[in-house]
């Protein structure tokens, strides 16, 4: 008996869905190989039963030979014993392969999550990680398990076809030609099944993310009476998952029906042709029994092949999600030693963005993911593109994290005294004032885990105060006021500009209040800079910018 999980799961192979499944098959060759052998033996022992029955009819009953009848009865008993023993061994190996694949995948996913560390929430949602760790690993285990029975089904169909061709060429041809036709008739259902399964998996991940957010903020939601609103949102998300599941079930039921109807039609054709051959004397009564037994038996391996297609599609979708997580790279190692001559331009070659020193610049993007990607590049949380500060590439810049700070809404508030988390420098009071957080940061305020006792707007203001208190040369804020009310947002916009006078600030936002207070606004479309100017200039001259900022609403011309 081998213990699971193994101490070292190994390194996955090529990062593709099929590559991940092949790697899982290669790391357990003995268990998988033995399982396939026992699976073939288990199904072949069933396939030979019709032959023994037919011979018992011809050699024993028709010929009135008691010895032959007893002999073939013993053969049937032996086939039953082989089937029972091989079935037990096959199931043991299949269970081990299922567990090994699921545990090994869970291990490499956990190891990757640990390797990513703080970069993990920047790259993937919590709900997606939960879905990978629970649902996807199970589907991958199912995919490895079905390989054992699927291999037995394929080999058995080939052997049965050969036996039928040897006994009767016309009947054998019906089976040999009919089986591929049956499989081909069901093939058009596999593509929509794969597509709908993928959509269902996306919906489940989104719902898990929403559930994680609700649980994390449940205490605050109860305090502000927001439980019902989020419950309605969760209910709506749950209904989307249900509808996606129904669409998958529709194709799945069609596949299940095809797996019964199409083999049934083949059986009827074989029985009809066999009966006609028996009445003309072309085959013996025992051979008719054999042909009928084969026709009935073939339903089993053919349904197993259909099941294999189903589970391998699910495993492929699940492996794709795992591979996407494994492909994420950790934050680059910061080992630069070059000191810049002084504050200078922060440039991103990929998008064409240039953030001038000493100004408050706002960035508006048609796609929020594009704005987030630019912020990650400017802070070198991803090592992509050519980014430089004061002419020095970020990979060579000394003390990068002290010079350039990127603040996002996923940043955590540390448990403990609030003042300890903000620091005790001389700029803390000014930072709290600029973030409109004086009413939250009482001297004896204590932060629970992840700041769950604060509302979303309060957490956002505390994060902003912490970022301002750090007083970096370059501060990059991603949607810093998305959770506060308009009155507070207007005050923050005014105070932020004053607090960062002489420092370089980039605010990624679509808020008109923040944009109107910025020194300069950059509009990014398709991942590249499309226009620059002040907020009011861009409203007049750039329709795409106006559409993003006003959410498609028509506003009166700015004064």
Automatic annotation (TrEMBL):
One term of GO molecular function: ABC-type oligopeptide transporter activity
Origin: domain of life: Bacteria
Any single Gene Ontology cellular-component annotation: plasma membrane
Pfam families given in the database record: ABC_membrane, ABC_tran
Keyword annotations of the record: ATP-binding, Membrane, Nucleotide-binding, Transmembrane, Transmembrane helix
InterPro entries attached to this UniProt entry: ABC1_TM_dom, ABC1_TM_sf, ABC_transporter-like_ATP-bd, ABC_transporter-like_CS, P-loop_NTPase, Type_1_exporter
ABC transmembrane type-1 domain boundaries: 34-314
PROSITE patterns for the chain: ABC_TM1F, ABC_TRANSPORTER_1, ABC_TRANSPORTER_2
Transmembrane segments: 31-49, 69-89, 146-165, 171-190
Location in or out of the cell: Cell membrane
Record carries keyword ATP-binding: yes
Name of the protein in its database record: ABC transporter ATP-binding protein
Organism the protein comes from: Actinomadura craniellae
């Amino acid at each position: 008996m081998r213990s699971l999980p193994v101490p070292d799961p190994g390194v996955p192979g090529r990062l593709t869905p099929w590559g991940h499944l092949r790697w899982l098959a290669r790391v357990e060759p003995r268990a998988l190989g033995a399982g396939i052998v026992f699976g073939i033996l288990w199904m072949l022992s069933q396939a030979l039963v019709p032959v023994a029955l037919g011979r018992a009819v011809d050699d024993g009953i028709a010929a009135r030979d008691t010895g032959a009848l007893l002999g073939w009865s013993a053969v049937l008993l032996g086939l039953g014993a082989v089937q029972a023993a091989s079935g037990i061994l096959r199931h043991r190996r299949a269970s081990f392969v299922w567990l090994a694949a699921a545990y090994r995948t869970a291990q490499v996913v956990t190891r990757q999550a640990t390797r990513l560390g703080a970069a993990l929430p920047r790259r993937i949602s919590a709900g997606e990680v939960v879905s990978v760790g629970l649902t996807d690993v199970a589907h991958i285990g199912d995919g490895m398990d079905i390989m054992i029975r699927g291999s037995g089904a394929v080999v058995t169909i080939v052997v049965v076809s050969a036996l039928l061709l040897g006994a009767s060429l016309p009947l054998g041809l019906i089976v040999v030609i009919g089986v591929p036709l049956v499989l081909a008739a069901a093939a058009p259902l596999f593509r929509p099944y794969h597509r709908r399964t993928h959509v269902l998996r996306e919906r489940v991940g989104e719902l898990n993310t929403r559930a994680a957010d609700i649980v994390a903020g449940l205490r605050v939601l109860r305090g502000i009476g927001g439980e019902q609103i989020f419950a309605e949102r969760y209910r709506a998300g749950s209904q989307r998952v249900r509808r996606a599941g129904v669409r998958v079930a529709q194709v799945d039921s069609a596949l299940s029906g095809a797996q019964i109807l199409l083999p049934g039609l083949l059986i009827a054709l074989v029985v009809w042709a066999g009966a006609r051959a028996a009445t003309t004397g072309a085959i013996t009564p025992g051979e008719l029994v054999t042909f009928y037994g084969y026709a009935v038996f073939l339903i089993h391996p053919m349904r197993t092949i259909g099941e294999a297609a189903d589970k391998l599609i699910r495993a492929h979708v699940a492996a794709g999600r795992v591979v996407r997580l494994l492909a994420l790279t950790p934050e680059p190692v910061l080992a630069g030693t070059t000191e810049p001559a002084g504050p200078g331009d922060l440039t991103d070659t990929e998008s064409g963005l240039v953030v001038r020193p000493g100004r408050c610049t706002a960035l508006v993007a048609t796609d929020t993911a594009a704005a987030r990607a630019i912020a990650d590049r400017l802070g070198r949380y991803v090592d992509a593109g050519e980014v430089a500060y004061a002419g020095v590439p970020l990979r060579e810049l000394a003390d990068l994290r002290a010079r350039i700070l990127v603040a996002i809404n996923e940043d955590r508030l540390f448990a403990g005294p609030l003042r300890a988390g903000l620091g005790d420098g001389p700029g803390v009071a000014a930072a709290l004032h600029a973030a409109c957080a004086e009413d939250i940061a009482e001297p004896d305020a204590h932060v629970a885990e992840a700041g769950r006792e604060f509302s979303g707007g309060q957490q956002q203001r505390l994060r902003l105060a912490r970022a301002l208190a750090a007083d970096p040369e370059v501060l990059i804020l991603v949607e810093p006021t998305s959770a506060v009310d308009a009155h507070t947002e207007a005050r923050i916009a005014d105070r932020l500009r004053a607090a960062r006078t002489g420092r370089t600030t980039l605010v990624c936002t679509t808020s008109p209040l923040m944009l109107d207070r910025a020194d300069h606004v950059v509009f990014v479309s398709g991942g590249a800079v499309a226009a620059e100017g002040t907020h009011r200039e861009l409203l007049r001259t750039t329709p795409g910018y106006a559409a993003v900022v006003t959410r498609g609403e028509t506003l009166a011309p700015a004064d």
